[in-house]
Amino acid sequence: LSHIINTYIARQWTMADVEDAAQFFSTHNFGFTRYPFPRDLLTSIVQEHDGWFPVRIEGLPEGSVCYPHTPVYTITAKGRYAPLVTWME
C-alpha cells in the first residue's frame, strides 16, 4: 500500500498525468464497456486542489498481523469526491 500511495497519491498531479491515466485506462474494458475512468474528477483535482488528492487514507502499520475480514486500510473523501474512493480501491 505504501508504494501505491507514494507513487500515485502523495504527489502533485498535473494535467499531463491525467492524460496519461486516461490513455492507460482507455485500453481497459469493464465487461463489454469502457472502464469508467473519472476524468472530470481528476481534472477538478488538478484545477481546484493544485493536483493534490482530497482524500484521507488510514491503514494498519505494514507487517501487522490481523484477523480475517479486518479492514487493512480505509479511504475516505467528502462531497463530490466521494466516488473517487471506489475508483482508488
Write a short abstract of this structure.
This protein has 89 residues and is of the alpha+beta class. The chain has helices spanning 2-9, 15-25, 39-48, 83-88, and strands at residues 29-30, 33-34, 55-59, 73-77.
What keywords describe this structure?
4 helices; globular; single chain; two-stranded antiparallel ribbon; 39% helix; alpha+beta; 89 residues; 16% strand
Structure description:
This protein is of the alpha+beta class and 89 residues long. The protein is 39% helix and 16% strand. It has four helices and four strands; from the N terminus they run ααββαββα. The chain has helices spanning 2-9, 15-25, 39-48, 83-88, and strands at 29-30, 33-34, 55-59, 73-77. It has a two-stranded antiparallel sheet with strand order 1-2. The chain is globular, with a radius of gyration of 15 Å.
Shape: globular
The secondary-structure class comes to: alpha+beta
Number of helices: 4
Radius of gyration: 15 Å
Low-confidence segments, given as residue ranges, are: none
Fraction of helical residues: 25-40%
Number of strands: 4
- Report the sheet-strand fraction: 15-25%
Order of helical and strand elements: HHEEHEEH
Strand line-up across the major sheet: 1-2
Average pLDDT taken over every residue: 90
What is the end-to-end distance?
Answer: 11 Å
Mind summarizing the main beta sheet? 2 strands, antiparallel
Helix and strand arrangement:
Elements: H1 2-9, H2 15-25, E1 29-30, E2 33-34, H3 39-48, E3 55-59, E4 73-77, H4 83-88
Antiparallel strand pairs: 1-2, 3-4
